Here is the input.
Amino acid sequence: MFGQIARQVATVSARSFSTTSTNNHKVAVIGGAGGIGQPLSLLLKLNSNVTKLAVYDVAPVTPGVACDLSHCDTSSETAGHVGPEQLGAALQGCSVVVIPAGVPRKPGMTRDDLFNVNASIAKATVEGVAKHCPKALVAIITNPVNSLVPMAAEVLKKAGCYDPNRLFGVTTLDVVRARAFLGEALKVDPQKVEIPVIGGHAGITIMPILSQCKPKYSGSQKEIEALTARIQDAGTEVVKAKAGGGSATLSMAYAGARFAGSLLRGLNGESNVIECTYVESKITDASFFATPVVLGRNGLEKNLGMPPLNDYEKKLVEAAVPELQKNIKKGVDFAKK
Ligand code: NAD
Ligand code: LMR
Here is the structure.
């Protein structure tokens, strides 16, 4: 009888401490003390699917940011990690790694102008992922997303742990903006708007597919073109408005928390978790392309492919693909150097 009880206790303990428990997730925010990183970490601290939150940055304020967050009365544990020697501790055991580390644009710059500085930061981070949490889902926010995601794929391939279903470029802010602007145009709650935004995350590669908007958007061709341009240039709108003080941080934290939250919901086996995201793709001649995907227990479960396009949207895609191919080559070449 005592033997039976001991066996039962042992089984319960093994279950409680099992690292494969589906609802037991550590999430790291790399660049967690930055303009995006701090509010993103706060939103993740409020997410009940996060059990451990690791805030990693090179900035000395990082332990203070983690201490501050740890006073929020939610049940997850928060830890701060500073500098390359603590990157391993931040990444160890992570289910999801979100990366907003790197420099933002100033007025007059393109996202591509950030490549030289940010590619080195992202490369070192992804090398850390390969070493410390090769099975984690990795979500790259740092710009230029169009080049850094293919670069990260090469780094992971070199390390022998690349899984295309586990690497994502975060384009959620484009969807969030499209919903906000369409909500305003349609005079409906933006939360009720459904709109695929495909392609990439810079200029003409950002393609809101307005013909598929629900509720239906029936603007004139002139209005469609103006709204498309506004969504494509929305990042620049914020950069100009901040007048040298950086780029979007709060809306990006909101979008990043939504995307990371969706990754976690997928990992937990929730059905029908769909997000637009920039992933390895065979849908066009660009080897990375954002489309709506279903997220599941292993990351990307199913790519839902190209939404139906009208003639105007087909032309947008035709123009975007060569631009994306250039961006992708830049990232791949950097990783191979
Ligand atoms: P920020 O300067 O406020 O914060 C960046 C943080 O990264 C800083 O705390 C810095 O210390 C940290 N950092 C620098 N080097 C690091 C390293 N090697 N390891 C870890 N952390 C490091 O910038 P931000 O406004 O938070 O923007 C961050 C990035 O996100 C930029 O590249 C920006 O262009 C990009 N961004 C992307 C989107 C998107 O939609 N994907 C939206 C907005 C901004
Ligand atoms: C955005 O879309 O807000 C980000 O990519 C930041 C930027 O440089 O525009």
